[in-house]
Amino acid sequence: MDPPAEHAITRLLLQWKGGDRNALNELMPMVEAELRRLAANYMRQERPGHTLQPTALVNEAWLRISQQNQPAWEGRSHFMAIAAQYMRQVLVDNARKKCALKRGARSPAASLDDAQLFSEDRAPALVAIDDGLQDLARLDPRQAQIVDLHFFGGLTYDEIAAYLGIGRMTVIRDIRMAQVWLKKYVTA
User: pTM of the predicted model, to two decimals?
Assistant: First the structure.
């Protein structure tokens, strides 16, 4: 992203943080392409032929983002990291619904987009990864955040390092350690 656009996004985020809800309307067209890229990263992990478009994931995440009354944005990178977390939450929430349905729970109210959001065969794995990330966050919050930003948010090692104020090699080391931790949740 070119520096003038990045500065404009940061300016709008700070205006929104300061209470200007109109900044939110100006912000969406500026970040929509990047949000779609994040959503595409998530959807690439789905089975081939999946019917969901990244647009549905972006829309649901944007709804959750826009409902914040006093966001604490520090800039574009921070906003994108939060957006990535919301996208993961959307997918995990839907995966949990699918797993509950398989166990015989009553069907929750769902929209058409909800019905398409997640492939059944991947739902248990995503729930397991989310559980593992939550456990890892209690042990090492930074490692969990780095995994979330990289694997779910699509941020590069350099973007993560800049956002967290740590070195690139620390990011790489933390990702490797977290992968070992999370392996027991995926293979269980």
Answer: 0.65
